[in-house]
Design goal:
Porin; 8% helix; single chain; mainly beta; 52% strand; 9 strands
């Protein structure tokens, strides 16, 4: 999907430019001169990260831990009320892939077994957060909302002998899956250095499967790490 890669490259470029504005993104910021300290109310941030799907999964749609992962890139603005607290909003692109175990219990989206198989979401999302500065670290929590603008079911199969098309392997993509909800929401928590590495954790509160679906839910947690800059 060409638009997906174009959007990803654009967002990555914006985030990198934000990171480049800080001359030392991985070093603690020098302590301000409190004798002439002026509070800057407007705050901006940018981040790029990688997370891994976690949590229990139904045996009929067993999700592989460690393999199932997401990529996220975005940025936003915040308003600082005092030196140690601000409230803001981030916008981002996020791609999450749930790799399915291949065994006789599998029913999502059918019982056919493959060499590899995943359910994938491409999302645009927003996050409203409350951030606290604790020394040289930050801790925040917030509420996110994702719009899954592109969903896919992807399978990979290898052939011991070339198939009718003369191929030794086959990749099949089913797009815009009708059994998935077009949006989801949940909680996000982040902790780390304002200009460096940060950990994040998300807990999805909504179901990804539509009401009345015969399919079990996918794991609700993601744990990951970002490279971020906060100005």
């Amino acid at each position: 999907m060409k638009i997906k890669y174009l959007l990803t490259c654009t967002l990555v470029s914006v985030t990198i430019s934000l990171l480049a504005q800080n001359p030392a993104p991985f070093k603690p910021a020098p302590a301000p001169d409190t004798s002439s300290y002026t509070l800057t109310h407007k705050v901006s941030d940018g981040f790029i990260g990688l997370g891994f799907v976690a949590g229990p999964s139904d045996f009929r749609a067993n999700v592989k831990s460690g393999t199932s992962r997401e990529f996220i890139v975005g940025g936003g603005v915040a308003y600082r009320f005092v030196k140690w607290n601000c409230i803001g909003i981030d916008f981002y692109y996020k791609s999450t892939g749930y790799y399915l175990a291949q065994d006789s219990n599998k029913i999502l989206p059918n019982t056919i077994l493959h060499n590899s198989e995943k359910i994938s979401f491409d999302n645009f999302g927003g996050l409203v957060f409350d951030r606290f500065m604790i020394g040289s670290f930050f801790l925040d929590g917030g509420f996110y909302f994702d719009w899954a603008f592109y969903t896919k079911h992807i399978t990979w199969d290898n052939h011991t002998a070339a198939n009718s098309a003369g191929a030794s392997s086959t990749k099949v993509i089913d797009r815009q899956l009708t059994f998935l909800n077009p949006s989801n929401y949940g909680l996000t928590f982040r902790m780390g250095h304002p200009n460096g590495l940060a950990l994040y954790f998300t807990y999805r509160l909504s179901n990804v499967m539509k009401s009345g679906s015969v399919y079990p839910e996918l794991p609700p947690y993601v744990v990951g790490v970002t490279i971020s800059v906060i100005n």
